[in-house]
Amino acid sequence: MKNSLRHLDLNLLVTLDALLVEHNVTRTAARLHLSQPTVSVQLAKLREAFGDPLLLPGPRGMRPTARANELREPLRDALQALAQAVAPSTPFAPQQATNTWRIAASDYVESAIVLPALAGLRAAAPGTRLAITELRPSTLVQQTEQGQIDLAFFISAETPTGLRRRAMFTDRYVLVGRAGHPKLKRRPTLAQFCQLEHVIVSQDGGGFHGVTDTALARLGLNRRVVLSVPHFLFLESALANTDLVALVPSRLVRNRATLRVVEPPLDVPGFETLMIWHERVHRDPAHQWLREHFAHSVTRTSASSVTDSH
User: Looking at the chain, which terminus has fewer C-beta neighbours within 10 angstroms, N or C?
Assistant: First the structure.
């Protein structure tokens, strides 16, 4: 071939494929909805590009040359593969899907978002798999960009820029201790609150200061933080088995019989949780379905909690 592929009009290859089927310029023109002169011009260009006559006059139309016969199968395979590549995406069929999805989330999000959606996900897409990985904010953009994770759930104030996002819900903080805690029979005063022994979740490891301490500092106050833990799961066990207390997101302690929940005596800013993903999967039908499944699950869970509270 005299010219490289980038200099060859793709339409010429479509014409060549039809000529190798029809062995006739007139029938090829009809097949491609072109005029006969147009096909003749394209055949001339093909002959020049390949440096071969490709099709020669014969007693019953045209007969392919040896070079044309060599091209027949690989050309057909290449055009079929190209047609498949540019074809519109087929609708996602969850019942037949075998996707493995990877989600980055904290244990709080596992409890508030992933767990309520899990039964529905298994029922709707039984052949899929779900891997929940540790949330690493510093590498989140890189992980989504490289396909290491498909979705992440993150607090809006800390979400990296450059990623697609969708609001899931807002949550607020409540004061929690064990059921029967002697100092949580009613809402404590601010002074009583500061004297309680507190637990804090520090996901960056070992911290003893959080949003509650920032709010107290504005009032010239401080509290007694005596335990720092990395996960909410351990926090719940610590609260249920000691007289420690903690300010935690309200969704984390719904319907926990072992815990006592009261309103805190100061206003601690809540937060919004976002679902985030990379542009590369934004239009993928399977990914769109997964995002909608989580969004609908959150909506149902939120509506259920409102109904239960009445």
Answer: C
Contact 277, 287 (CB under 8 A): yes
Whether 130 and 214 map to the same domain: the answer is no
Q: What is the C-alpha to C-alpha distance for residues 96 and 247, in angstroms, rounded to an integer? A: 43
Are 76 and 112 in the same domain? no
pTM: 0.68
Domain that holds residue 130: 95-170+272-309
Whether residue 174 contacts residue 250, with contact meaning beta carbons closer than 8 Å, is answered with yes
Q: What percent of the chain has pLDDT over 90?
A: 60
When divided into structural domains, the chain yields a total of 3
Q: For residue 234, what are its two tokens?
A: 């351990």
Q: Encode burial over 24-49: b for 16+ CB neighbours within 10 A, e otherwise.
A: bbebbbebbebeeeebeebbebbeeb
Residues 252, 117 share a domain: no
Three-state DSSP class for 254?
Answer: coil
Query: CA angle, 258 as apex, 252 and 264 as ends, to 5°?
Result: 55
CATH number assigned to the domain comprising residue 18: 1.10.10.10
Neighbours of 310 (CB within 10 A): 4
DSSP state of 265: S
| Structure confidence by residue, pLDDT tens digits, 19-46 | 998 889 998 999 889 999 999 999 999 9
- Given a contact cutoff of 8 angstroms between Cβ atoms, the answer to whether 49 and 2 are in contact is yes
For the segment 69-86, what is each residue's pLDDT rounded down to a tens digit? 999 889 988 888 887 777
Residues 72 and 101 in one domain: no
H-helix segments, 95-166? 107-109, 115-124, 140-145
Residue 283 sits in a domain whose CATH number is 3.40.190.10
